[in-house]
Structures are given as C-alpha cells and as structure tokens.
Amino acid sequence: MADNYHLSxxxxxxxxxxxxxxxxxxxDKRPLVIAGPCSAETEEQVMETATQLAKKGVKIFxxxxxxxxxxxxxxxxxxxxxxxxxxxxxQETGMYVTTEVATAKHVEEALKADMDLLWIGARTSANPFxxxxxxxxxxxxxxxxxxKNPVNPDLELWIGGMERLNNAGIxxxxxxxxxxxxxxxxxxxxxPQWHIPLELRRRYPDLPILCxxxxxxxxxxxxxxxxxxxxxxxxxxxxxxxxxxxxxxxSDASQQVTPDSLEYILEMLVIxxxxxxxxxxxxxRKQIDLCDDNIIQELAKRMRVxxxxxxxxxxxxxxxxxxxxxxxxxxxxxxxxxxxxxxxEFMKKIFEAIHxxxxxQQMEIINK
Length: 368
Ligand code: PEP
Ligand code: MN
Hints:
The protein is of the alpha/beta class. The chain has helices at about 1-10, 45-55, 80-95, 105-110, 120-125, 130-140, 155-165, 195-205, 215, 225-230, 260-270, 275-315, 325-340, 345-365; strands spanning about 30-35, 60, 95-100, 115-120, 145-150, 175, 210, 235-240.
C-alpha cells in the first residue's frame, strides 16, 4: 500500500492547466522581481518607495493593504484607502501592482481597484475553506495569482490550494516559497526546507516559483544569501520587501531593505544558466560515471590479489596484519595523493578503508 502511494506520488502528472505569467514590458528572464513594502502605511511612504524602486528598474510593486497579524492590536493594514495609492503608483510609475487577498471581499475590492496580480498569504493557503472562498470569488477572472506556501510544511496542502484556483479557471498561477514556521526560532524566521519547493518544481515544471527571502530570513543580512541560493536552485523570481525607511516600517521592519540596498543585492547576484549548463553537466557526469566504473574494477582487481596474499599467508603461517606494510602504504599514498591535488588526509581515509576490506577478506581465508 505504502509503495503504491509513493509510486503514485512519484508518477503523478501535472494535472493543472498552466499558462506563463507574461506581463507586457517585463523581460522574460530570471529573476522576475517583485518589490515593495510589507505594508502600505501612508500615501507618502507608498509613493516614495515606489518612485525609488521604479528608478532601480523594478517592474512589479507589492504592498500589503490588509495585514494578517498574529496578535490583535498590531497594525492590520490601511484597507481600501491604500488601494487608491496603489492606483497612483500604477499611473505615475508605470509599474504593475500587487497585493495580498485573504477573503472574497478583498478580491472584490482588489479587482475593482485594478490590481494586476494578486497574492495569497501563508496563513490563508493553510486553510482549504479560505482557498475555496477565494477560488469562488475568482471564478472566470483572468488575473495572475501567486500562492505562498502554507505556514506548515505541507506540500499537498500548497498544491491543493493552487488546484482549487486552477479549477476556477486561474491558469496564470505562480508559487511563492516563504519558508515554514517553527516553534523555536533559529537563524531563519521561517525554515527554508528547500526540498519542498524543489519537489513542487519536479511535479509542476511549468509552474513559476518565486522565493520570498524577506519572510524566510526575517533579517536584512540574510536577504542577499537567500536570493543567491534561490537563483542557484533555479527559482524563477524573487519577492522582496523594500521600504524607503525600513527602520520606521510599521510591520516587519527588521527584514525590509531600502531600494538602494535591493539594487545592490540584485546586481551582485550570479545568475547561472540552466539548459546549456545541464547539457554540459550531463557530459561531465558521464565522465564521472566512467571514472567510478574504473575505480570499482581496479578495487576488485586489488582485492583478488589481496586474497591470493591471504592464501600465501595461511600456507606459510604468517599473520594477516603487517604493521610496517600498513604504515608504508598509508604514508606513500598520502604523499602521492598530495602530488595529485588531493589532501593527504583524504588519501589516508581511502587507503584505511581499502586496507580494512583487504584484512577482512584475508581473515575469511585464514579462518576457512
Ligand atoms: C507578506 O508578504 O507581507 C506576508 C504577510 O507574508 P506571509 O503570508 O508569507 O507571512
Ligand atoms: Mn511582511
């Protein structure tokens, strides 16, 4: 039963109908960048941040209008009024705009205010009732929707939420990896658990996946390395929190960066090509496989000789273990390895393991 279950997961086919999130004027190259403050706070803060980001070449502006807060009493977002500021951003900077929706009412307001993309937050994607409510509200609407992973590390729940939207006709879907909650906070605010988005990529190769380094890291210093990691894992895009005065932000202050820092972070990214390098990688891996074949063949030959020595030792009453010979092998091969650009330590480990196997095989012969 368990095997069938795992097989069905391994073989499960892409059952979502997906189309690329193409946006006129946004170059189709990695990374697709979305940036903007955690929350829209005031008209000035939104306009100032957006103007600076647009100058840096950012094409898609994010800002939370309704904020899901862990405890009551925190800043819960400016609400509908902020949608007007987002419209101003659109008109004055030409950027696309996106905000988080968590209820059917939010969807209605966001569509009325002409948002270009929507995203669904981690607390919402963890709740199938909420996801169904959003899917129903979006029935027949052609808008790109980005779905953050649920707060808990449950890939099926994440996919299930996206399937609900897809069943409602949303085909321009994307996923946002924002890390997973833990009780004990360690370096990360939310653990990356990269294998989860990578499994999502394996199952839905056509689904764009963005990384949200701000909510994974929770700290400014972690944004750059997380962006680089995401690019090295072939993520399609990044959604980064950026604020004109991060220290004064009304929510998530410690993880927001200025538009200047964001520009620097993006400029420093090393973007490695995918297709070409995987072809090259395939060739190189074939060479590695060949080397490994040869290593095994040679080891087998060596063991055959070792067994012959074992027979000789048995016939002549000589002990299996010969300390001087053992030391001689280790020292000679460690030195030789160093001449061939390998560490002596590594060579010693290899020859200790080989010698151990030889001794084991000779002991079997002696005791026959
Ligand atoms: C956000 O993007 O500001 C947000 C609330 O994120 P998350 O849903 O990932 O916590
Ligand atoms: Mn935030």
